[in-house]
């Protein structure tokens, strides 16, 4: 593989998982360091890594987002390195090509960039073009993405623009439809089988039905009052003198 050091940028919630997986698969072969924590600890880690060296550094997106002095010092140190691989986990975090996060990560010096995401498109094609522009800035320069965005005239792309986008993405997107892999799948067999409940399941099932019936019973009854409509009305016989 390519010579290190290598950089992994991931959400803070999965940094420890990356460290754990490196330990499971690369123990004794790669020196892996975590760059995350309090500012004082990070500064100490910088000096330690500069002196002892490392093969892989795992850090978070947070240090490419903040505008404070601490985040600036983090980026300054990270930008001094020449990385072999720059791996970005949950890379759809780069979907906004105009964000500070995108711009600050773009200036990292790396021989190869690898983006990991299960949702390369969340809202529109521009987000996918932003990821391709990050990986292949020579092939997909940012101005191409901006031009595509401006030509759309809104959120809905025209049919012609969709066709053009598909041609652009064809060498980079592998889409396998069901008809393409159907021959490789075993025949589908459907079997219906009635299962009998155990005694305890039947008892619980019957009790639920009974309670439901009891709750519905008052609703189905006649709750209207039975007043006596046959009472004798009082008569008034008034007479007048002529």
TrEMBL record:
GO molecular-function terms, A-Z: ATP binding
Signal peptide annotation: none
Residue stretches of biased makeup (Gly residues): 228-242
Start and end residues of each Helicase ATP-binding domain: 1-138
Species whose genome carries this gene: Chrysotila carterae
Family matches, as InterPro entries: Helicase_ATP-bd (IPR014001), P-loop_NTPase (IPR027417), SNF2-like_sf (IPR038718), SNF2_N (IPR000330)
Positions of region (Disordered): 188-242
PANTHER family named among the record's database cross-references: SNF2/RAD54 HELICASE FAMILY
Protein name as catalogued: Helicase ATP-binding domain-containing protein
């Amino acid at each position: 593989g390519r010579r290190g050091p290598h950089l992994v940028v991931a959400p803070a919630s999965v940094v420890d998982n990356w460290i754990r997986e490196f330990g499971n698969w690369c123990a004794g072969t790669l020196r892996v360091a975590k760059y995350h924590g309090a500012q004082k600890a990070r500064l100490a880690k910088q000096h330690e890594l500069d002196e002892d060296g490392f093969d892989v550094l795992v850090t978070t997106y947070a240090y490419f987002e903040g505008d404070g002095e601490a985040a600036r010092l983090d980026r300054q140190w990270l930008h001094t390195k020449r990385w072999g691989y720059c791996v970005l986990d949950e890379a759809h975090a780069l979907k906004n090509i105009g964000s500070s996060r995108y711009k600050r990560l773009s200036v990292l010096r790396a021989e190869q960039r690898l983006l990991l995401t299960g949702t390369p498109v969340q809202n529109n094609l521009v987000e996918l073009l932003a990821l391709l522009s990050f990986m292949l800035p020579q092939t997909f320069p940012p101005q191409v993405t901006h031009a595509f965005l401006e030509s759309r005239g809104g959120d809905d792309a025209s049919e012609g623009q969709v066709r053009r986008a598909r041609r652009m993405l064809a060498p980079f997107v592998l889409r396998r439809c069901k008809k393409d892999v159907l021959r490789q799948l075993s025949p589908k067999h459907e079997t219906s089988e009635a299962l009998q409940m155990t005694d305890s399941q039947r008892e619980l099932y019957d009790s639920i039905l009974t309670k439901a019936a009891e709750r519905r019973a008052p609703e189905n009854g006649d709750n209207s009052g039975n007043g006596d409509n046959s009472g004798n009305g009082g008569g008034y016989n008034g007479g007048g003198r002529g």
